[in-house]
Design brief:
This protein is mainly alpha-helical. It has one domain. It is 74% helix and 0% strand. It is built from six helices and no strands. The protein has helices at residues 2-5, 7-23, 26-34, 46-74, 80-95, 103-109. Helix 2 (7-23) runs antiparallel to helix 3 and helix 4 (46-74) runs antiparallel to helix 5 (80-95). The longest helix is centred in the middle third of the chain and has 29 residues, at 46-74. The model has no long low-confidence stretch (mean pLDDT 96).
Amino acid sequence: MISLKLSPVILSFLLLAAHFFRSGIMILSILCLLIPFTLFIKNKWIPRIIQILLILGSMEWIRTIFIFVEERKMYDMPWMRLAIILGSVALFTALSGLLFQIKSVKRFYIK
């Protein structure tokens, strides 16, 4: 049941893994694929670490927005849809960290 509640967190890391894979940064891609496995460790520090990593992931999406938008502007290509989609992904990644505030999820990580 806990994996179902945390599925947005898992999806966020899978999206980040795909992003880093596309960028050719294999070590970060593999790391993003392995991080969801730590969600099943019952330790009070896991939620905070995951939340920090999700915020960093969201910041990476925002950085990517700026890079891609500038590139598209330089070639006089449409960029608004790209910014909206990546902005939504950044927001989804950041907000998925709030799932650790659910009572049943909190109880799972308290020893």
